[in-house]
Specification:
Elements: E1 2-8, E2 20-24, E3 36-38, H1 50-56, E4 62-69, E5 72-79, E6 91-95, E7 104-106, H2 118-124, E8 130-137
Parallel strand pairs: 2-3, 6-7
Antiparallel strand pairs: 1-8, 2-6, 4-5, 4-8
């Protein structure tokens, strides 16, 4: 199953966090949010279709998140987790760790914000930039 979340860039995107990647529906971003790679996202975890939530809440599910910005694509692979509440209305976070909270979409991921190509980050520092956060679950 696939679900796509459009998002926008922001001048304060730094993409330096070594353990997470986040998109948010919020429009404001400080430089402290160094895991955030997109703002004004169309959905938070709570907005995902129920069928997708059920797949994400299965620890045997494989998750691939594809971040697309202009000609750049960055894929992150992770796992579902039966403890995911998926109830945050604003944020979607993928994590290298097994930590779970209402914002968590996937755990045990193979990459974080610090590995995003710097050319992609540079594009995302333009508030007019647009990207897509695609979630594929099998």
């Amino acid at each position: 199953m696939r679900f796509e979340i459009p998002f926008h860039g922001h001048e304060n995107i730094r993409s330096l966090h070594p353990k997470t990647i986040e998109i948010t529906t919020e429009s404001c971003l400080t430089t402290n949010g160094d895991c955030i790679i997109g703002v004004r996202a169309s959905s938070g975890c709570n907005d995902l279709p129920e069928k997708m939530k059920a797949l994400l809440q299965n620890s045997k599910s494989s998750i691939t998140c594809t971040i697309s910005v202009k000609d750049f694509m960055f894929k992150v692979k992770g796992m579902g987790n039966d403890k995911l509440p998926l109830t945050n209305p604003h944020d979607v976070v993928i994590r290298k760790s097994a930590f779970v909270c209402p914002r968590t979409l996937a755990t045990n991921c193979d990459a974080a914000a610090d590995l995003l190509p710097r050319q992609m980050v540079k594009i995302l520092q333009n508030p007019d930039a647009r990207g897509t956060f695609a979630i594929d679950v099998t």
